[in-house]
Design goal:
The complex is a heterodimer. By secondary structure, chain A is of the alpha+beta class. Chain A folds into two domains: about 90 residues, Sandwich (Immunoglobulin-like); about 240 residues, Up-down Bundle (A middle domain of Talin 1), CATH 1.20.1420.20. Chain A has twelve helices and eleven strands. In chain A, the strands form three sheets. A five-stranded mixed β-sheet of chain A has the order 3-9-8-5-6, with no helix packed on it. In chain A, strands 2-1-4-7 form a four-stranded mixed β-sheet, with no helix packed on it. In chain A, β8 and β9 form a beta hairpin. In chain A, α8 packs antiparallel against α9. Chain A is elongated, with a radius of gyration of 30 Å. Chain B is mostly helical. Chain B contains ten helices and no strands. Chain B starts with a helix and ends in a 16-residue tail after the last helix. Chain A: Belongs to the EfeM/EfeO family. Chain A: Keywords: Lipoprotein, Signal.
Chain lengths: ~375, ~290
Amino acid sequence: MNTPRTRMIAAGAFAATAVLGLAACGDKADDKGGASNEIAVTATDSECKLDKTQLSTGNYTFVVENKGAQVTEFYIYGENDVIVGEVENVAPGLTRKLSVPLKSGTFQGTCKPGMVGDGIRTPITVTGDDAVAADDAELSAAVATYKTYVATQADELVKLTEQFTTAVKKGDLDEAKRLYPLAREPWERIEPVAEIFGDLDPLIDGREADLAQGQEFTGFHKLEKDLWIGKDIKDSGPIADRLIADVKTIAEKAKGAELSAAQVGNGAKELLDEVAATKMTGEEDVFSHTDLWDINANVSGAQQAIEALRPVLAKRDAAFLGTLDTAFKTVNDTLAKYKSGDGWKLHNELTQTELKELSDVVNALAEPLSHVGAKVLPTQ
Amino acid sequence: MPNLGIYLIGLREGLEATLVVSILVAFVVKAGRRDRLPLIWAGVGAAVALSVLFGGLLTYTETTLLKDPADRELFEAITSVLAVVFVTWMIFWMRKVSRKLKGELTAKLAEAITVGGFAVLLMAFLSVVREGIETSLIFYAAAANESGLGPLWALTGGLVTSIVIGVLLYLGAVRVNLGKFFTWTGAILVFVAGGIFKYGVHDFQEAGVLPGLHTHAFDITSWFKPTEWYAELVRGLLNFTPQPTVLETIAWAAYIVPVLLFFLWPAEKTAPKPVASDATPAKETV
């Protein structure tokens, strides 16, 4: 029944819900792109000074400091004195903020000391593309999609590497050889992100031929050599331990990496460059000849990057996106010829003609991919 | 006197809230329904908590909710118009009660009126919250002032003064006899509600929802300075501003004239016509 007590409880619940609901709204604050640019406004009884009046489109926070003796107000007027933003009740000595998104056009930053009249006006010119905000939201969404992919691949990398190093430590030569190319796949899909953390990449994936003077040979390729050349992994335990430790570290870092859309696009290109530079020649997995696992992983990683960027690319250059799609299809079709069971043919099983054909289609994809980064820059 | 300005802002913003609340409290007490008081305080408390929280979020976080000042104008406009609806309802209610008083014993009054609990809560909430966020933003700005706490004390002083005025109003109101109380506070409320309505329309104009922000009905700012104490006081009490737009002035008049006429029209003479007490439902249960 509606006794005063139950109504009180209802009232309290209402208030609590409102407060909690709003507190929750405050939390999501930081996910809405970048800090806004601050513009200092110094208002006195006779002046209205803005420290910047030539702006590019975007979000701005006017920090209005009243150094006068009278209560003032600060307005941003647009065409025909439409109020774009305002902050009232700026008492003497106070600093109050006004946050507004500004599109291109001419505005009037206006102080109204004493809260009367037309105010003291300072023209503001805003130039730039009005579509920026919407576009940037799409870029952020693309990056978020790609980061989700990186996170799943990072988890996969840790899982498979753990299986691989466990087999190595158990001395199970055949199992370790079977797992070696599989553990490398997630690595090869997201390698450009891993390369951001420069010091770990050579420890995990450094090739013997690339070692600097005095540098220790560690990581995947050391174990590869032990497995295929030495055929003895009795002493490989420490290297295996170190590999899984490094992989875990880099997986965590990769998951937290901040990326831009351009980095995602350039990463796709780097993956294809990897293919052309070392894998087509068989240098990458020189002992095991499992280069095609790597090549396929590189291509699929690049394809995921383009998938993440697809909405942006479709809007900005649909024809270009079509070119990419065709080139990806050609590469995948060509690769498919060398499937063998669950995996791939070994590098040394392919003829020179076959390698040449594969190399050509990869290069045909790498060329348009090299333009992706530039096409997904913020419009500002 | 650099801090007089902020004192007056505190007084004005405070009065806009305390005026309705103190009349509401007086009304509930007069009607013998003190059991409704906790609901009023719950409404006020919720509004204050919400305002303080929101002011903090806007000042110290990157929250996007209500960050756009136009959204805040819209919030104030909507809560103001809602407040007017509730206050108007209260005005008519008072009128009906004052009519009943003629024939009935005061002791029966408490039974005669059922004061809607949720309506009371919501009215108190709306009266305080509509200016609450702006007030709390000023408060945070004053607290952040680097050159001393003068502005903060001045603002607090203004708010406290408004509460004192509200208490005095209440004390005066509870002392007069019931018939007078309903007539006078009702009449005052008509002007207060008209002021809130005018304010709401102005905020709709500032938010860009209604046109004509720069079409002024008159401009007496040359001699009626809006920063003077008397100007801030009448703005706090009645929302009178020296440079109103045509639209808000029309809205003000369109509210005040019919509501006041209806409120003050002698009941006896018009009793047979449906204009009078029939216009409000016989029983108020909310």
